[in-house]
Amino acid sequence: MASFNKNKLEISVEETDLNSNRSVRLDRWLTDRIANNPDFPKISRTQLKNLIHSKCVRCDDNIIEDPSLPIRYGQLYTIQVPEPKLATPQPENIELNIVHEDEHLIVINKSAGMVVHPAPGSSKGTIVNALLSHCGNTLSGIGGVRRPGIVHRLDKDTTGLLVVAKSDEAHQHLVHQFAARTIKRTYEAMIWGVPDKPTDRICFPIGRSRANRKKMAVVPKGGKKAATNYVLGERFGATASLIVCKLESGRTHQIRVHLNHIGHSLIGDPLYGGNRKITAKDDPNLKFVKEFKRQALHAQSLEFVHPFKQKRIRFSVPLPSDMQILLEALRRSL
């Protein structure tokens, strides 16, 4: 038996739900039963665990708090799905550069200086604040919070493409694609110096820097696997290069950390050594390059499978104006 009415979901354990060889976990069983019933709201396994820990799940009128509890034949589980409530971030009427939008997702060309998600010290003026205003009631929120589905982020001063889910089902689908590494992301970066190899794969684990907790670093142990592929696009003497990077993983500051580790930090990067000690002499172009105010990194293209159309879609955007000016200054400095 299974039913859903007024945010209350009831499911009973049938004989066919049991595995004769081993016990079946409650959270896994609930996830499967809910996913296979089109009349139920879309709830992920992680969201179910949160509901269980929040005492929103009962078994025969007894509150259940252990997601790993084995199910038994004949049990009746009741899930009280909370009404979505307003997220802590408040809507703000901030203009967004929208590349694509449909009922399931939105693709944004993020500008420099804009934070993606509210955090201590950056509670206003973020992408999330803008999305809450732009999307209004079209955002859904299983588990009690109505919010845009942020599935990946760009650093505050990195520009370019960002995809955001407008429904929980689209969010789960996109998260799965990121986890499976089937989403293709291409970045354009302007770096100091010229790499020894015209193309290479940088593969070093990344973790929190012990010397500076605000920074990430390549660490000998305890880090997460990370790989960045690059291709040399254009070189400007021995001073700088334009490269194209493709990510296999999405660690915090990954491109910035990897390039700095091999001795070619991003031009303008204030955190990872962006201001090289070069002699500008009387060349105003090199002076402009040295004084560039942010990391010269741009998320140029994004390709993924649309959660509902089930076909690959690709988006690309040109360099922002400040990086175009930087590129021309580098070309003139030759």
Description:
The protein is α+β, with helices and mostly antiparallel strands and 334 residues long. It folds into three domains: 2-80, RNA-binding S4 domain (Structural Genomics Hypothetical 15.5 Kd Protein In mrcA-pckA Intergenic Region, Chain A), CATH 3.10.290.10; 85-180, Pseudouridine synthase, CATH 3.30.2350.10; 184-303 and 319-332, Pseudouridine synthase (2-Layer Sandwich), CATH 3.30.2350.10. It is 20% helix and 28% strand. Strands 7, 8, 10, 11, 12, 13, 16, 17, 18 and 19 form a ten-stranded mixed β-sheet that branches. A five-stranded antiparallel β-sheet has the order 1-2-5-3-4. It is elongated.
Helix content: 10-25%
Order of H and E elements: EEHHEEEEEEHEEEHEEEEEEHHEEH
Write down the Rg: 24 Å
Mean pLDDT: 88
Largest sheet: 10 strands, mixed
Tell me what the CATH architecture of the largest domain is: 2-Layer Sandwich
Total domain units: 3
> At the third CATH level, what is the topology name of the largest domain?
Pseudouridine synthase
What is the CATH superfamily of the largest domain? Pseudouridine synthase
